[in-house]
Write a structure and sequence with these properties.
The complex is a heterodimer of chains A (212) and B (629).
Chain A: E1 5-13, H1 19-28, E2 41-50, E3 53-62, H2 69-75, E4 81-87, H3 91-95, H4 97-107, E5 113-119, H5 131-141, E6 144-147, H6 156-173, E7 185-187, H7 201-204
Parallel strand pairs in A: 1-3, 1-4, 4-5, 5-6
Antiparallel strand pairs in A: 1-7, 2-3
Chain B: H1 2-22, H2 25-32, H3 36-39, H4 45-65, H5 74-87, H6 92-106, H7 119-136, H8 144-156, H9 158-168, H10 173-194, H11 205-236, H12 242-271, H13 279-320, H14 328-334, H15 343-369, H16 372-378, H17 381-405, H18 409-424, H19 443-457, H20 464-493, H21 498-502, H22 506-542, H23 548-583, H24 591-628
Helix pairs in contact in B: 1-5, 5-11, 6-10, 7-8, 7-10, 7-11, 8-10, 8-12, 9-10, 9-12, 11-12, 11-13, 12-13, 16-22, 17-22, 17-24, 18-24, 19-23, 20-22, 20-23, 22-23, 22-24, 23-24
Classes of the chains: A alpha/beta (212), B mainly alpha (629).
């Protein structure tokens, strides 16, 4: 229940690359071959342990459809980590990575850790994008790279946890200002908060003022 | 009584002594009926008396034998031996020798001349008693060998025939003994043979017999006691090595040997009083014998116990010193440095720490269970609200950007439109809709209003989740009410129920459970509302065409319906709480606590309504953006 840090993740990428499946595999450890189209954003959360500290990962699984692009852009803000997902069996999802990356860089803080994920690694026979291509793209843009399979759960844990480790290291290095919630990092509650009569939504109103 | 009896016997003895020499014929006639061997010596009148007595006693004999050693009558032990000891006269030894010869050669029970027979029966008694001892005691407790050695010692008569007369210093006894020595030896051998059929022992035998059995009884008791003690020791030290066990086992023969010596002594000391006419000293001697038994066996037990302990100790030291010569390591272990914390200290600190942690955990668990914010967060209400807020902010920014781009009349028009939408989205006060309070908050009304609102907003957001959550809450409330009704019926029947009496803390817990359920229901519902508004906002942004007035109206209607639902749920939970509290004894429930719980439910309900209204207010920029596009 209580955690040392809360990291906000955002999963982005073309529709049908398996973003929601990756989340489901990570949070529920199960695979759902047919998934409803995500409307706007869905949420998932899981507790992990890094360096003996409990870290809550709050994952925003965005809709990949082009129609939601304007909406999902709103959610980039305040993410500490992003999983940029493409489908190794569909070259166009790989080709769209640059746009996604631009969006992510534009609408989030510059220190955001981005993990490039080539999903559906179980479908080796239908592979269109070589692993080397993904590695090259990641290297070029300073991303972490991994090929995963939401179906077989291969590298799914690692993808999420390695991202968290990277964020944690940045915190240790002092790159992230953990007191600024816009960085997507919250310090865990030290004690149970008292019942506020006013909802918390009020304080968030001023938060959005800085960005256009 | 004992004295008078003994005197009687003494006089009888005198009579015998005097009359035996005379030998009246009348007595012979009388005693001939008894036995041919006795007639020659037995006196007339006392013989008459004694034959009667012997008759009686011989008839009693089976009783005297059957109840062996321990069963011997204490009275016979006390009184009769004295008479015997008294009975030794000057002529007795002669008589005895004659009597003995006659008696044993004929193997006939001596009846009248019991006094002169004194010595032989004593021996016989001894052997008999030891035989008895063998009979009564289980073979494992008293082995046979000592008895055999016992009898063999009697056989050679060394302690008896030589020592006793010397000690007694009886003038003529020495000569008599010397003369009768072969006879005695013969007797002893006969004795050993004869002991097989004890039943023939006469009245004269019996007292002596009792003495012997008394001694052996004591011995046997002590012996069995000792062996049982040693067996207990062995049992207790079952882990001991076989060496020690065998050591313990080896004690037993020693024990037996000692006891045999004691036995001999006892015979001596028992036999001794037969010569001096001192009753008191004899009884003291008996006591002394018993004491000696106790002393020797006690000594033996202590000795064997000490040796056992010693060997255990040695073994323990050996084990301790194994691989640790001089016990250096172990000593270092126990003599810790003073600054180092002791084990007990560490344990105490650890326990205290654990207690504090446990308390904190329980507190946080309790807090989270009934904490609205935490539950709201758990049901993902907070994150949806956050996402909605982000969307709203984005829309607000876009509107501001548009405002900046406009100027003049279009700007005024734009601003007027924005204000109009905002006014349309104003949520009317609850007071205005008081009239339909009864219906509001039910699932039917909620569903009706939500369906209407969604039709007005024209967004495909399903409100099934909201309805499902509401249904769950209603089901729980209905179940609780049913239980309560049953309880109240039961209360009328039998108020003092056993369960009520036994579960003191239960009523308070039941109230807390209701409170917790209330908070949970409110949090879950509010979270669903936040999600619903969030999705609505997302889909409103995707919508191409907007009818602002209808949209605003729908949002207001939806908000009102949801807030009414929240109030209704809170009211029903509060009713349940107060009803539950009223059902219980005022002594069992602190009504201040109940009021606090009810107040808290209403507080969280208003909190929930605030979230809902805030969420609806967050929709305004979305609606405004739609209106101006």
């Amino acid at each position: 229940m209580s955690y040392a840090y809360l990291f906000k993740y955002i999963i982005i990428g073309d529709t049908g690359v398996g973003k929601s499946c990756l989340l489901l595999q990570f949070t529920d450890k199960r695979f759902q071959p047919v998934h409803d189209l995500t409307i706007g954003v869905e949420f998932g959360a899981r507790m992990i342990t890094i360096d003996g500290k409990q870290i809550k990962l709050q994952i925003w699984d965005t809709a990949g459809q082009e129609a939601f692009r304007s909406i999902t852009r709103s959610y980039y803000r305040g993410a500490a980590g992003a999983l940029l997902v493409y489908d190794i069996t569909r070259r166009e999802t790989f080709n769209h990575l640059t746009t996604w990356l631009e969006d992510a860089r534009q609408h989030s803080n510059s220190n955001m850790v981005i993990m490039l994920i080539g999903n559906k690694s179980d479908l080796e026979t239908r592979r269109e994008v070589k692993k080397e291509e993904g590695e090259a793209f990641a290297h070029e843009h300073g991303l972490i790279f991994m090929e995963t399979s939401a179906k077989t759960a291969a590298n799914v844990e690692e993808a999420f946890i390695n991202t968290a480790k990277e964020i944690y290291e940045k915190i240790q290095e002092g790159v992230f200002d953990i007191n600024n919630e816009a960085n997507g990092i919250k310090i865990g509650p030290q004690h149970s908060p008292t019942n506020p009569n006013l909802p918390q939504s009020g304080q968030g109103a001023g938060q959005g003022g800085g960005c256009c | 009584m004992a004295n008078s009896e003994s005197e009687d016997f003494e006089s009888a003895d005198e009579g015998i002594n005097s009359k035996s020499t005379e030998g009246p014929p009348s007595s012979q006639m009388m005693s001939s009926a008894e036995s041919s061997a006795l007639t020659a010596t037995s006196p007339a009148d006392p013989g008459n008396l004694l034959t009667a007595a012997s008759k009686k006693e011989s008839s009693d004999q089976p009783h005297g034998i059957v109840p062996v050693g321990p069963a011997v009558n204490p009275e016979s032990l006390g009184a009769k031996p004295k008479t015997l000891q008294k009975s030794k006269g000057k002529s007795y030894s002669k008589h005895r020798s004659q009597r003995n010869t006659a008696e044993y050669s004929d193997s006939i029970v001596s009846s009248t001349n019991n006094k002169p027979n004194n010595q032989a029966p004593i021996r016989k008694g001894r052997i008999g008693s030891s035989k008895l001892g063998v009979k009564i005691s289980p073979p494992d407790i008293v082995p046979n060998e000592p008895v055999v050695s016992d009898s063999s010692k009697y056989k050679d008569n060394s302690p008896w025939s030589h020592d006793l007369p010397k000690r007694d210093e009886n003038k003529d006894n020495q000569d008599v003994h010397d003369s009768i020595q072969p006879l005695l030896d013969k007797l002893a051998s006969l004795d050993v043979v004869e002991t097989s059929d004890e039943v023939i022992d006469p009245s004269s035998d019996k007292p002596v017999y009792n003495w012997g059995s008394w001694g052996s009884w004591g011995m046997n008791t002590i012996l069995s006691g000792a062996s049982s003690v040693s067996s207990h020791v062995t049992q207790g030290l079952s882990t001991m090595s076989s060496v020690i066990e065998s050591g313990l086992g080896a004690v037993e023969p020693e024990e037996m040997a000692k006891l045999t010596v004691e036995d001999n002594k006892s015979v001596n000391t028992e036999a001794n009083p037969a010569f001096p006419s001192d009753q008191a000293s004899s009884s003291f001697n008996v006591m002394g014998n018993v004491l000696k038994f106790v002393e020797s066996t006690g000594e033996m037990i202590v000795n064997s116990g000490l040796s056992t302990l010693e060997s255990i100790g040695k073994k323990t030291m050996d084990v301790l010193q194994e691989g640790d010569p001089g016990l250096k390591k172990k000593r270092a272990l126990f003599s810790r440095e003073p600054d180092k914390p002791t084990l007990s200290q560490i344990l105490r600190e650890a326990r205290n720490r654990a207690e504090v942690e446990d308390r904190e955990r329980v507190q946080t668990k309790k807090a989270t269970r009934a904490h609205f914010e935490t539950l709201f967060d758990d049901y993902k209400g907070m994150i949806h609200l956050e996402a909605l807020e982000m969307l709203s902010n984005t829309c607000q920014l876009k509107l501001e950007a548009k405002l900046l781009a406009l100027s003049g009349t279009p700007l005024i028009e734009f601003q007027r439109k924005l204000i109009q939408i905002k006014e349309q989205c104003e949520i009317p006060d609850d007071d205005e809709e008081e009239e339909e309070d009864d219906d509001r908050g039910t699932i039917e009304i909620l569903e009706r209003d939500l369906t209407a609102a969604m039709r007005g907003l024209l967004v495909p957001v399903p409100h099934t989740k909201l309805i499902r959550v509401s249904e769950d809450t209603d089901t729980w409330l209905a179940t609780m009410r049913c239980i309560q009704d049953e309880d109240s019926q039961n209360d009328n029947d039998e108020w003092v129920d056993e369960e009520d009496a036994s579960e003191e803390a239960d009523p308070q817990n039941a109230l807390r459970e209701i409170h917790q359920q209330a908070i949970q229901a409110l949090a879950r519902f509010t979270a669903s509302v936040a999600e619903h508004f969030h999705k609505t906002a997302e889909l409103l942004l995707l919508k191409e065409e907007h009818d602002c007035a209808v949209e605003c109206q729908s949002v207001v209607m939806m908000t009102s319906a949801l807030c009414s639902r929240v109030s209704s749920v809170a009211a029903r939970f509060s009713e349940l709480l107060s009803a539950s509290a009223n059902m219980l004894d005022s002594t069992q429930v602190d009504h201040n606590d109940v009021n606090l719980l009810i107040t808290n439910v209403f507080l969280e309900a208003s909190n929930s309504s605030s979230y809902i209204q805030d969420a609806s207010q967050l929709l305004i920029p979305v609606l405004q953006l739609g209106a101006v596009q």
